[in-house]
Amino acid sequence: MAEKQTQRQRIAPLSPFEEAAGFTRALRAGDRILVSGTVGVEADGSVAEDAGAQADRCFALIASHVEELGGSMADVVRVRMFVTDITHADAVTAAFTRALGHVRPVATLVASQDFTIRAGR
Q: Between residues 15 and 72, which one has the greater pLDDT?
């Protein structure tokens, strides 16, 4: 038996890509607020060179999405962070601590690894 769909509240699209791809950056479904992957793009479209500054911008965007949907950062229970280089982990972790350290949600930080495939190996 199909369950009745939960009423959903979405933030307004922030880019044409969202409409074209058919996704929402953040939505509220019942008592949950879900935020999709977020990158540290500034309002003017620029991206800071520093990973910590990018992460600060990500957390600021996430906070604005959550607040727009009626929540607060104190409601956050899980965070997943991805970095392209493990050397950025400390800067990203520091941004996480500034944004959410007082909340102490569960958190995961994953770094990609650059693998070079060499002929004959």
A: 72
